[in-house]
Give the backbone structure.
Amino acid sequence: MERIESLRRWLVCVMSEAGFEISPASSDASFRRYYRLRFDDGRPSRIAMDAPPESEDCRPYVHAAELLAAAGVHVPEVIESDLEQGFLLLTDLGDATYLNALAEAPDRAGSLYADALDALIRIQLASRPGVLPEYSRELLARELAQFPDWYCERQLGHKLSEAQRESMETGFSLLLENNLAQPQVFVHRDYHSRNLMIAQPNPGILDFQDAVFGPITYDPVSLLRDAYIEWPEAQVIDWCVRYWEKARAAGLPVAADFAQFYRDFEWMGAQRQLKVLGIFARLFHRDGKDAYLRDQPLVMRYLRQTCERYRELAPLARLLDELEPTAKSVGFTF
């Protein structure tokens, strides 16, 4: 209650004489909260972000917003800011997410994903080292550690044996070796259907404050192996090919052979899926947010399919069977 009153007082100051109503717009998996402002005089609505400074830092958001706007994609404009209090006033990209639009009209998928992949290529073309944090081995490994800590031990109540932990670490090392060998570009890091908005120009892009400089397949696999919506594998491959062809034509450093690119895409996806399973477990067990639990089975299905497809990842596939034998999927191995 104290935060919302502080936010309201700040908005009254920055909005001068404008009368407005404030209502919740959305929340996310962090401590950030978003509110929509509607004005008495009919001017366009705005979004107020509340990011408690003891838990969140608005500076990476402001910095990433500048980089992405310069890349020519549609992100909220920062109109006013109070970085010490953790308040931002933003333009409003609306409330029509890709996820909701696709649920209502799946036949729009082709055009919406084409727009999303085109925007992603523009972001990647703007890439340069030294302006975003590096997606380092330490960060990638720290993300992976959430799988044994939160998913295995906290959610499943399974303490890994020495042999199981050795198999897991071997698999993690293989994934990291692949991830770090990939060409590096700007990475949104959460580029999926809940953070893409139906907007003009399309898409509007949200939730980019954790952007880094990292593997080129990270955002494509985040989009196409989305934790919240599933597409047939043939469709995913088709979109992958379209992205790969456009990326090559644009001069981006994707693998020259599509089979290699798709392998990189899947191995990057496995790292992300292991991380996401751990994060979703943490959100429930630490933060009391249970909505993410219903999305875990899809994420696990993606992970199993990849681990069962590649001989090198067979130890990880066996570990998943040992953890949850009833969830085994049907896979094949190259």
